[in-house]
Known about the structure:
Elements lengths: L13 H24 L6 H9 L5 H11 L11 H18 L2 H17 L3 H17 L3 H17 L3 H12 L7 H21 L3 H23 L3 H17 L3 H12 L12 H14 L4 H15 L7 H18 L2 H34 L1 H121 L5 H36 L8 E4 H18 L2 E5 L6 E4 L1 H19 L6 E10 L2 E8 L6 H4 L19 H12 L3 E6 L5 E8 L12
Parallel strand pairs: 2-4
Antiparallel strand pairs: 1-3, 4-5, 5-7, 6-7
Amino acid sequence: MKELPTETSDVNSSHEFDSHNEAMIRAALEKGRLLCISGQYAEIPAHLSQLGRLNLTPEQAILFEVLQLYPGASASYSHESQRLQRANNLLDLAQVLDSNLARAWIWELLQLLQNSLLLHHAALHSNAMAVDLFEQCNRKRDAFNIKVSRCLIMISCEMYREVIEMSEQLLSEREHLDPIALCNILRSAASANYFLGTEVDNAESTSYLHQALGLHEEVLRIAKNFQISKFELISHTNIAIINASLGRAEQTTYHLLKVEGMQVDAQNINPNWIYWIRFCDALLLCQSKEHEQGWVKLQQLESELRGLDLNAATVHDSVLRKIISFGSRWGYLDIALDASLRLADLNSKRRRQLSKTLSATVEDLMALPKLLHKNQQLSQHEHQLEASLARQNVELNTMLERLQAEANIRKKTEYALYQAHAKLEQQIQTRTQELEAAMNLVMRQEKQLALGRLVVGIAHEMNTPLGNAMMAASTMEDHCQQLISDLHGTTLKRSQLRVSLQALSQGNQLLNSALQTASSLVQRFRALAIEQHSETIQQFELSSLCHRFLEDWRRKCQDRGVTMEVKPMAEVHMHSYPNALCQVLDHILENALQHGLSQQAQGIISICIETVGPDVHLQIHDNGCGIDEAHLKRLFEPFFSRQLGNGGMGLGLSIVHSLVNDLLRGQIAISNHAKGGTQVALSLPRICPVKLDKTEN
């Protein structure tokens, strides 16, 4: 927000006001440039809209149009080639104005557009021009960042050894690098080492891959420290790929799970990223017991990559090299030979593209004399423009004097608005604090109410067994006193002793029963709390687990006259908590038998398991009496039961809900089936996220 002048400031000072506007506009243009070069495309249109409403100088107008030419900034240009043509036109205008800053911005834009059009050598030339002009403008940090982007262009040109050499030079001056620039240099050096490692198949290859791995791990540390999610995602992916190439299955799986747990912003990620992930999965399978499945996936991936342009050439090249290596090793010589031919064809396309870029560069060099002549003409035109601008300056000064009075009135109005705005913000802040205090009070009251309900429920459930225990203890005490009295009076008969002992035995049985009930309640209360660290995550096959578990329940159902129908299921491999899953199914089936089918003459329980994407869906349906609609929303509340006091404690479904949501990281829903009865729907991830310790950052 623009800082407004105070009431006591010199509102008549036009020089100070103009200089303030100049600084504000330049700062806004610089912010727009940072948004463009960092790829924050979502914020660019709104920022440009604000800039478009300002009065810009000719130089500022060129800078403003440069920002509009960045991909994602404006819909006026449908393709990079149109942007490239307009950028060259702006370069001529900047030459007329003799603005080194404008030319530096344009050359910086040209390198981006030329690289996206695969004009790599032209992009390197533009990069060198931008570096030189930024240095002339005494903007050393900008010049250094442009040098960093040169490494990324050289990677596209497959100048891998040159990239490593240049990266070492840049890293020797780390004090000039911000975290993003440092990550880009390390990534470039890592990519160069990786591709050099894939080009050879010997001990030197392993050395290159280890160097690439170390560089990517350093990028990951920097990305975590500075919370750069884009580089963190890319680093995990690259580390997984390299570990897969080195045959490290455990490390590969760890980093792939990290990737799966991260949010992906498609705008800021290379579109070929997903193909690298699939390549890593296939490579990992090829080096495991399931290598035949990995071999099929590797070929499928290569088939898809054939239809893409040269922007996907790097991943396509890596896939083809692995097909050649594994095909030769496993005896698929025809497939390996075919892959070799496609690799040669891909390299041929690259050479043709390189020839195209070199031809464009030669044409630019041949056009240089024409450009020099044109520059002379522009110089002459410049003198004419200076004279015209002088005349216009006189007219503008006259107009400025007329506008000054209006400017003074506007400043006073702005100051009044500023004061009103400040007062309004203070009122909003005060009201916000009051609302937050009220909300905190309501939350505390709700927590106290929930705790009260829990305490009442526990007290209600514990009261009966404790009352029985106290009654049994009192009765046993009375009989003991009577027995002692009879012994002292020497009037005790055998029949009396037998009666007293029977009464004591019955009291003891009642006491034991009450204590067992109380112990069972305590165990159920402990289960409600769910000690999630009591079980470790495991790999298991779901169909086999369900077959063993449901076989026992099939016999229980037959004993109660209930038929269990289990639809056939395919093999589903899961990475989760098998014991917790069995506990969930146990509670659901017991609930169906006890509540839904207790009055059903021919009860049926139907179980269906299927996979949907990365999840497993389980549906358990009975043909029982169903559930009252008023009770559906309360089923997962602790101590809610339709049979409370008749053996039901109302804890089973509460335990199920906690296990599914907190441990298995899934979802559960209970509803009345359209054909009658009750349906329980479970949705569980096949790969359960590992629950981190609360002490971790």
